[in-house]
């Protein structure tokens, strides 16, 4: 089978396994949800959307401005509502903000309308990525690496409830997206065999 035919076969297998559900990427800031989401969406022939972009559009404020003006609680409430709206729309690949999956209500909505994929990255990889990109409200303090470590402790057990976990590595975007697509395909093949 040619590489193009193999890619199309994998794409069809994943779309069949999704059965109209969204691919929802979860993980901490810096895990690569947006970068990987764009590549995966392109390979699957689905639209891509970043929930943070949608939150900013709905509020006409940036995420840091929302945190500063309204606090994390109000931000999380808006985030939950925006994600619920996105999950009710047409199938796509959705990148969630790092804290969104912590909401039990959001996890239930994703379970009903999506397939959650956790991009699991270690502390050093995350910190090397987020330190290059300013404007992360939760890291605006004297010990951003320590804060990131604490977020990992709090969030990773909850992220572990995702349908699938893929370990992030220092790979090119294409290679990492390929690894994630392969993991999804393997997941759906295994699920099909289990149901047979």
Automatic annotation (TrEMBL):
<dbReference type="GO" id="GO:0005829">
    <property type="term" value="C:cytosol"/>
</dbReference>
<keyword id="KW-0808">Transferase</keyword>
<keyword id="KW-0067">ATP-binding</keyword>
<feature type="binding site">
    <location>
        <position position="76"/>
    </location>
    <ligand>
        <name>substrate</name>
    </ligand>
</feature>
<dbReference type="InterPro" id="IPR000623">
    <property type="entry name" value="Shikimate_kinase/TSH1"/>
</dbReference>
<keyword id="KW-0460">Magnesium</keyword>
<feature type="binding site">
    <location>
        <position position="155"/>
    </location>
    <ligand>
        <name>substrate</name>
    </ligand>
</feature>
<dbReference type="InterPro" id="IPR031322">
    <property type="entry name" value="Shikimate/glucono_kinase"/>
</dbReference>
<keyword id="KW-0963">Cytoplasm</keyword>
<dbReference type="GO" id="GO:0009073">
    <property type="term" value="P:aromatic amino acid family biosynthetic process"/>
</dbReference>
<feature type="binding site">
    <location>
        <position position="136"/>
    </location>
    <ligand>
        <name>ATP</name>
    </ligand>
</feature>
<dbReference type="GO" id="GO:0009423">
    <property type="term" value="P:chorismate biosynthetic process"/>
</dbReference>
<feature type="binding site">
    <location>
        <begin position="30"/>
        <end position="35"/>
    </location>
    <ligand>
        <name>ATP</name>
    </ligand>
</feature>
<dbReference type="InterPro" id="IPR023000">
    <property type="entry name" value="Shikimate_kinase_CS"/>
</dbReference>
<keyword id="KW-0028">Amino-acid biosynthesis</keyword>
<feature type="binding site">
    <location>
        <position position="34"/>
    </location>
    <ligand>
        <name>Mg(2+)</name>
    </ligand>
</feature>
<keyword id="KW-0418">Kinase</keyword>
<keyword id="KW-0547">Nucleotide-binding</keyword>
<protein>
    <recommendedName>
        <fullName>Shikimate kinase</fullName>
        <ecNumber>2.7.1.71</ecNumber>
    </recommendedName>
</protein>
<keyword id="KW-0057">Aromatic amino acid biosynthesis</keyword>
<comment type="similarity">
    <text>Belongs to the shikimate kinase family.</text>
</comment>
<dbReference type="GO" id="GO:0000287">
    <property type="term" value="F:magnesium ion binding"/>
</dbReference>
<feature type="binding site">
    <location>
        <position position="98"/>
    </location>
    <ligand>
        <name>substrate</name>
    </ligand>
</feature>
<keyword id="KW-0479">Metal-binding</keyword>
<feature type="binding site">
    <location>
        <position position="52"/>
    </location>
    <ligand>
        <name>substrate</name>
    </ligand>
</feature>
<dbReference type="GO" id="GO:0004765">
    <property type="term" value="F:shikimate kinase activity"/>
</dbReference>
<dbReference type="GO" id="GO:0005524">
    <property type="term" value="F:ATP binding"/>
</dbReference>
<dbReference type="Pfam" id="PF01202">
    <property type="entry name" value="SKI"/>
</dbReference>
<comment type="pathway">
    <text>Metabolic intermediate biosynthesis; chorismate biosynthesis; chorismate from D-erythrose 4-phosphate and phosphoenolpyruvate: step 5/7.</text>
</comment>
<dbReference type="GO" id="GO:0008652">
    <property type="term" value="P:amino acid biosynthetic process"/>
</dbReference>
<dbReference type="InterPro" id="IPR027417">
    <property type="entry name" value="P-loop_NTPase"/>
</dbReference>
<comment type="subunit">
    <text>Monomer.</text>
</comment>
<comment type="function">
    <text>Catalyzes the specific phosphorylation of the 3-hydroxyl group of shikimic acid using ATP as a cosubstrate.</text>
</comment>
């Amino acid at each position: 089978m040619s590489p193009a035919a193999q890619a199309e076969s994998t794409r069809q297998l994943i779309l069949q396994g999704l059965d109209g559900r969204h691919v929802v990427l979860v993980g901490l800031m810096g895990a690569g949800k947006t970068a990987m989401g764009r590549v995966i969406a392109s390979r699957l022939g689905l639209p891509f959307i970043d929930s943070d972009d949608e939150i900013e559009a709905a509020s006409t404020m940036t995420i840091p401005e929302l945190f500063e003006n309204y606090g994390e609680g109000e931000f999380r409430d808006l985030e939950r509502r925006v994600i619920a709206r996105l999950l009710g729309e047409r199938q796509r690949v959705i990148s969630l903000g790092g804290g969104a999956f912590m909401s039990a209500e959001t996890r239930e909505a994703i379970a009903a309308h999506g397939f959650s994929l956790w991009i699991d990255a270690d502390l050093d990889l995350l910190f090397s990525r987020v330190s290059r990109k300013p404007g992360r409200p939760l890291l605006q303090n004297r010990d951003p690496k320590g804060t990131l470590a604490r977020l990992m402790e709090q969030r990773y057990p909850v992220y572990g409830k995702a349908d699938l976990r893929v370990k992030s590595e220092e790979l090119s975007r294409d290679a990492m997206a390929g690894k994630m697509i392969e993991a999804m395909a393997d997941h759906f093949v295994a699920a099909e065999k289990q149901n047979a």
